[in-house]
Amino acid sequence: MHEFPAYRAPSQREVTDLVRANPFALIVSGGSAEEAPVATHTPVIIEHLAADDGLVGGEMLGHIARKNPQWRSLRDGQPVLLVFSGPHGYVSPTAYADDPNVPTWDYAAVHLTARVTVLDDPTESMHVVTRTVHELEALESTAWDPTGSLPTFERIVGGVVSFRFAVTDQRAVFKLSQDKPADVRERVVAAARARGCPHGDVGGLIERIGAGS
Questions:
Q1: For residues 137-159, average pLDDT
Q2: Where does the pLDDT of residue 212 fall: very low under 50, low under 70, confident under 90, or very high at 90 and above?
Q3: Is the pLDDT score of 213 beyond 60?
Q4: What would be one Pfam family of this protein (predicted)?
Q5: At a CB cut-off of 8 Å and minimum separation 6, what does 83 contact?
Q6: Does residue 193 carry a pLDDT above 70?
Q7: Is pLDDT above 80 for 140?
Q8: Could you tell me if residue 79 is inside a domain?
Q9: Cα distances (Å, whole numbers) of residue 34 to 30, 38, 74
Q10: HSE (CB half, 13 Å, CA atoms) of 27?
Q11: Cα gap 175→58, rounded to integer Å
Q12: What CATH number should be reported for the domain holding residue 15?
C-alpha cells in the first residue's frame, strides 16, 4: 500500500488500536506473472506486540478452514500480507462550501507484511482459536465465557489450520479530510452520521484525528 505523506498515521497507538478493533482481516499470499494472489477473510489477532509496543517485531495469530486450499500453498517463513480496514466513507462535494469540486473517500487502513508459520497441530490450533475468542470477546460489552464449550472446540478444531505471523513491515494510511478546514470537516462528519456510517464511525476518526493534523 502506498503511504501518502499527508495522510500518515498520527501515532503507532492509533495503528495498533485500528488493528485490534478491526480484526476481520485479509490474508493475502502468492501471486506470479501467471496467477493472481490468493486472499482469505478471517480474524487475525495480536498475540504480542514488539518491545517498543509496535506491531513490527510482534506476532499475530490467525486460522482458516482446512478445506480452504490457501494454507497448502504456504511454507514456513514465506511472506504474506495482512490487510486491516478501519472505518471509511464516501465524501460528497455537498460538504464543501466552494465549487467546482470533486468527491473523495475518507478511510483508515493498515497493511502488515509478515513471515508465516503454519501450525498444523490441534494443540497449537486450540491456542490460536481460544486466544482469538478471548480477543474478540474483549470487544463485546458483555464477554462470553467459553469454558463450557472447550470440549466442543477440541472436537472440531481439526477442521482449521492455524498460523503465527511474525510482523516485518507496516504501512498505514489515515485519510480523514486533514487537508480541509475545520468547518468542512464538521460537515463531512455530519454527513457521515446522517448517512448512518455504514462502514464504521469514520466521523469519529475525523473528529479525533483530522482536527489534530
A1: 95
A2: low
A3: no
A4: FMN_bind_2
A5: 25, 26, 28, 39, 109, 110, 111
A6: yes
A7: yes
A8: yes
A9: 11, 13, 18
A10: 30
A11: 25
A12: 2.30.110.10
Is residue 162 over pLDDT 60? Answer: yes
For residue 75, give its domain range: 5-120+161-212
137 assigned to some structural domain: no
Residue holding cell 510482534? 58
- From CA 73, how far away is CA 85, in angstroms rounded? 25
Which residues make Cβ contacts (< 8 Å) with residue 53, sequence separation at least 6?
12, 16
CA 19, chain centre distance (Å): 4
Q: Find the angle CA(13)-CA(199)-CA(170) to the nearest 5 degrees.
A: 35
Taking the chain, what is the end-to-end CA distance rounded to the nearest angstrom?
A: 21
CA distance 80 to 160: 18
Instruction: Find the DSSP H helices in the chain.
Output: 12-21, 122-137, 150-156, 182-195, 202-209
Q: Is the pLDDT of residue 209 over 90?
A: no
- DSSP string of 95-122? G-SSSS---EEEEEEEEEEEEEEEE-SH
Which three cell numbers, joined as nine digits, stand for 184?
468542512
- Look at the chain and report how many structural domains it folds into: 1
Residue at 133 is within a domain: no
Quickly state the pLDDT bin for 99 (edges 50, 70, 90): confident
CA angle, residues 82, 78, 42, in degrees to nearest 5? 30
User: Among residues 1, 121, 135, which one has the least CA distance to residue 61?
Assistant: 135
pTM listed for this prediction:
0.94
